[in-house]
Amino acid sequence: MLDFYYQIKAQSTEHGRFSNWAFPPLFSGKVTAENKKAAKLLIEEEYGRKFPLRVLEKDLANEHYLLNIQEIKDDDERTKGLFELRECMQCGQQFRTIDLYNDHNEIYKGREYCGHRCRELHRLENIGDQGEGWGRKSRPMIYQITNIATGLSYIGKTTQVFTLRWYQHFYQGGSCKFHQAIKTSKAEDWEFRILETAVAPEGIDKNQYLLDRERYWIEKLNTIENGYNSL
After folding, report:
1. Of 64, 69, 60, nearest to 7 (Cα)?
2. Strand, coil or helix: what is 8?
3. Beta bridge pairs of residue 178
4. 16: alpha, beta or left? (left if phi > 0; alpha if psi -120 to 50)
5. pTM for the complete prediction?
6. Amino acid 152: pLDDT
7. Around Cβ 53, how many Cβ atoms within 10 Å?
8. Which has the higher per-residue pLDDT, 213 or 199?
């Protein structure tokens, strides 16, 4: 059995300028079949319609879609890589580049990040030093984010630029109780402040020290029972 990469293309709204067919394709995918003819039948069965492999100029009025199929050769690492699970360099989430290709609302189509937002966040993190406390070499910090109306707080740690961590909480939130509270409020309902810069003493593991200082402030301010931190 062979693997085939296919693209379903739609007619361009600007006929003849560069091509009769718009880019990017409507959909790109992969099927496994004995030969190209069998691959075409599988695709047509999936979509419930016939697709031409070639459309003459005189037939453009009647044929709105074009199917392109090519066998994926053993040494075609680029095409095979479109379907491989990758880990986003920014958030660690797994993704496939082919899914970015097929998402027409997604700007980013690369192989390093799960989307445009993560690419931009990674770029911001790596701007470089712009003075003490800024850039990739920002000092580790313990921060507190407080809801002004309720007085409830969240304690966190970061080795990133603290303004970037603030941004991540508000625009990349998950399902924890802190992020759920954010979703039902506005950004101006919250106050962000630095509690301390957590520089580990000589000979002490930096990551463990940062974790210990975060735990200290969580216990001191009781932000598990009376705040937004979780166990």
Report:
1. 69
2. strand
3. none
4. left
5. 0.53
6. 93
7. 10
8. 213
